[in-house]
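Contributing new records

If you add data, match the layout below exactly. Sequence lines come first and carry their own label; structure lines follow with theirs. Keep one chain per record. Anything else will be rejected by the validation script.
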Amino acid sequence: MAGHSKWANIQHRKGRQDEKRQRIWTRVMREIMVAARMGGGDLTTNPRLRLAIDKGKAANMPAENVKYGIAKATGTLEGIVYEEIRYEGYGIGGAAIIVDTMTDNKVRTVAEVRHAFSKHGGNMGTEGSVVFQFKHCGQLIFAPGTNEDKLMEVALEAGADDVVTDDDGAIEVLTTPADYEAVKTALEAAGFTADVAGVTMRAENTIDMGVEEAARMQRLLDVLEDLDDTQEIYHNAAL
């Protein structure tokens, strides 16, 4: 199955994350704390916590920070309680945007998200207004030049739903959220390390944009990304 070109977008986002590593650590710490508070601090019985720790490792977060976050969330240390809230809206050219947040003050957060949308050419929608355009799934993306036949063989044998080759040669392995860890483990055992991996909201279709529209859309995404309470942003714009 063929997909759209997204490698340049991935590299651009990774570059921005490298520039803002401390902010990434803050977001991962929140995710670790929420996962530990909801499912406990035992990695063997808490898959969400395992995924959060994987994000921490990918961002080179010190192990001490991870241990502190788990201890704080499970009651060993006193801490702030975060609430997960999802906002949906439309960006430039009607592109769909999902903003996942964690906050200790939802009044502040909704005001900041609404302001970002309205000031930069978007519109904040109601719950359910755009989420139907995305699929909740496990996603592993491999660089162009990866051995597609071997990757597909291992992935499908491990339980992947699909293997998608994008226009630029990048390869996506798609799974159900429940099968993500098993497929990732099997691929790593076979020598395949994904450049991007996680459980995500994957756009079912993309919206193409011209240069000016893409620049405006990127500006809106950057502003939303820079909000303190933002955890993840998903969109369907082909920038």
